């Protein structure tokens, strides 16, 4: 997701940071000799009430050991459904019991964003982003400063699993969101929740910097504790060979292959966390050995049949469906994520097993043997490839476009030939990763009928 | 015990003589003596023609009853003259609520002539009276009677319309705010989604 690309009305610093008096570190970040040509300003918008809500969100969920057990539902669920039924117009004509709730889709939110706003939500606190539409039509996402800032305690709970904590200090840069795109909003900001620590959103695209080495020098000078971004941005950062000591890298938005993860971990000498999140409800899970470990006790996860409103039992693969969240402008009940996995509960914590983004696609060898895209993902994950698109034409030819500075076309062809049992024609195009890429999310597609 | 047939009571109500449509003497000097009508109805209902003390609003509150409400009370007095209600002492203490609470609210939405001229409003008054007097119409059970009254209730309908209007206003406000906020700075983004 990217922010609204053309916000025309700017706020004052007092509106951006109602509780922060000392903006000297922000000015240092913005006015540094190596600083990029920031094209935007941003704040966390947290006033005292908002901040207390974010902190109470952390207190409520940070140490939660058991989300729910198999055969049970979370204790908050009934009250949440009742609240949705009473205050959210979209849900008011639905039955109050979860089992009677039909699933909803991205299309519902796209068409009727206003109907998902709780009658209790204060419209003065409404904030709007719209997605770039990289995985579908553009989508208005309504939220507030509290649900947005809740990203921080959610990530803190993930970092805790790695014995990492973010230092809260007004002279440190806590988080840098790294982009390597043609164009995006960039800004320096602060986090009230992190006691005024710096927040950066930067684009490695050389056109955004005064001197070619400035991106490297700037990042080295402010040495952010946590780097966030997608695998392509991280590989572009790696190319600069910056001397940084991040506590962790948080990768999201695209599939992170094991090869890329290893490469980043070897260089930055810190955990690289593969985060599963989505615009509609933000953080959901992160990749662990057993599968993607759920992060948030306030999200209830279920698996449904892809085509019918039929809930599937634990262990069976289907579409991930989400209920819950803390956004009064978009409370979700049985929201179809468009992503597929099976669900397993381990000691009260849900794990998403074999999570694959978007609809499963079946490929065929020339002699019509079916090949599941999960098998392809598993094989490709060993390579240091930051992103890819794979398409099968009607004549069964496979077109593969990958983004990597290490892998050759021959290696991909060899690997795909193993998967397709040497019974396929393949065209491979590997693009080098630069500091300004125009890459969409990894995806599979096919012109063939793919009834599984 | 009488059988309270809704159709029969509606038929009786719709035959209401014009004299009952006159204003109250508390509003116009030449009008009907509403207090006397109310007291007489109490006497008929409890079959005690010597009784002098009846539950009625204070003089102060009587002054606040509007013309449309008084005429609705007059019409309902005609309805209460039906033989079903004569010598029905159990409903005596229910009439105050009917006349001065329920009919007061309904009169905000119903013009007095409609209680007679409009089939649905006539049935509404009959059912409202029976409901206030805790009488279940002949051939119905409690739930059916409640459902039928609810489907006719001018007050309920008005509430639904008001809620619907408010919901519409809220949606229009959200759409306005969305358009306005879309053009504004939002808040920090910390990671990609």
TrEMBL record, chain A:
GO terms for molecular function: ligase activity. Residues 126-325 form the AMP-dependent synthetase/ligase domain. The keyword Ligase applies. Gene3D superfamilies: N-terminal domain of ligase-like. It holds the Pfam family AMP-binding. Keywords: Ligase. It comes from the Bacteria. InterPro entries: AMP-dep_synth/lig_dom (IPR000873), ANL_N_sf (IPR042099), CapK_Type1_Caps_Biosynth (IPR053158). PANTHER family: CAPSULAR POLYSACCHARIDE BIOSYNTHESIS PROTEIN. This is Phenylacetate-CoA ligase.
UniProtKB/TrEMBL annotation, chain B:
It comes from the Bacteria. This is Uncharacterized protein. The lineage of its organism: Bacteria, Pseudomonadati, Bacteroidota, Flavobacteriia, Flavobacteriales.
């Amino acid at each position: 997701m990217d922010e609204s690309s053309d916000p025309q009305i700017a706020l004052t610093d007092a509106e951006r940071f109602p509780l922060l008096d000392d903006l000297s570190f922000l000015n240092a970040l913005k006015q540094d000799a190596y600083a990029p040509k920031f094209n935007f300003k941003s704040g966390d918008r947290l006033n005292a009430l908002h901040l207390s809500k974010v902190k109470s969100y952390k207190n409520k969920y940070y140490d939660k050991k058991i989300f729910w057990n198999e055969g049970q539902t979370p204790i908050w669920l009934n009250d949440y459904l009742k609240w949705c039924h009473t205050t959210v117009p979209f849900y008011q004509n639905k039955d109050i019991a979860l089992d009677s709730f039909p699933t909803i889709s991205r299309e519902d939110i796209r068409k009727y964003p206003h109907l998902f706003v709780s009658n209790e939500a204060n419209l003065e606190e409404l904030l709007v982003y719209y997605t770039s539409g990289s995985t579908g039509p553009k989508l208005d996402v309504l939220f507030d400063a509290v649900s947005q800032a809740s990203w921080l305690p959610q990530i803190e709970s993930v970092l805790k699993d790695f014995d990492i904590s973010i230092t809260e200090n007004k002279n440190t840069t806590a988080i840098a969101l790294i982009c390597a795109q043609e164009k995006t909003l960039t800004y320096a900001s602060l986090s009230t929740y992190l006691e005024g620590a710096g927040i950066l959103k930067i684009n490695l695209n050389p056109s955004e910097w005064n001197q070619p080495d400035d991106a490297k020098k700037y990042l080295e000078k402010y040495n952010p504790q946590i780097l966030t971004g997608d695998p392509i941005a991280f590989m572009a950062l790696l190319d600069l060979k910056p001397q940084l000591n991040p506590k962790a890298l948080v990768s999201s938005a695209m599939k992170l292959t094991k090869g890329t993860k290893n490469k980043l971990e070897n260089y930055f000498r810190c955990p690289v966390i593969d985060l599963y999140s989505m615009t509609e409800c933000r953080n959901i899970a992160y990749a662990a050995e057993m599968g993607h470990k759920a992060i948030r006790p306030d999200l209830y996860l279920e698996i449904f049949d892809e085509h019918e409103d039929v809930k599937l039992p634990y262990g069976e693969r289907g579409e991930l469906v989400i209920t819950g969240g803390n956004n009064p402008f978009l409370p979700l009940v049985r929201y179809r994520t468009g992503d597929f996995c099976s669900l397993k509960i381990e000691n009260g914590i849900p794990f998403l097993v074999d999570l694959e983004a978007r609809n499963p696609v079946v490929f065929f060898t020339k002699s019509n043997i079916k090949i599941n895209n999960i098998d392809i993902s598993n094989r490709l994950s060993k390579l240091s490839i930051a992103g890819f698109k794979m398409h099968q034409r009607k004549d069964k030819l496979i077109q593969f476009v990958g983004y990597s500075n290490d892998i050759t076309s021959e290696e991909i062809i060899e690997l795909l030939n193993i998967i397709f049992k040497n019974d396929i024609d393949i065209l491979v195009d590997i693009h080098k990763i630069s500091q300004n890429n125009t890459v969409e999310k990894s995806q599979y597609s096919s012109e063939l009928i793919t009834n599984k | 015990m009488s059988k309270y047939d809704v159709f029969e009571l509606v038929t009786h109500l719709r035959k209401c003589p014009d004299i009952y449509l006159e204003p109250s003497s508390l509003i116009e000097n030449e009008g009907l003596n509403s207090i006397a009508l109310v007291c007489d109805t109490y006497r008929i209902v409890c079959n005690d023609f010597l009784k002098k003390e009846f539950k009625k609003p204070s003089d102060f509150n009587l002054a606040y009853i509007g013309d449309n409400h008084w005429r609705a009370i007059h019409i309902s007095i005609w309805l209460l003259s039906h033989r079903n209600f004569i010598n029905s002492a159990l409903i005596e203490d229910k009439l105050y609520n009917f006349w001065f609470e329920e009919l007061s609210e309904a009169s905000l939405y119903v013009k007095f002539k409609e209680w007679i001229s409009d089939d649905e409003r006539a049935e509404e008054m009959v059912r409202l009276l029976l409901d206030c007097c805790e009488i279940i119409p002949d051939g119905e059970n409690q739930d059916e009677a409640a459902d039928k009254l609810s489907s006719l209730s001018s007050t309920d309908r008005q509430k639904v319309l008001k809620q619907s209007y408010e919901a519409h206003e809220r949606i229009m406000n959200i759409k306005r705010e969305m358009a306005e906020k879309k053009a504004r700075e939002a808040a920090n983004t910390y990671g990609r989604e």
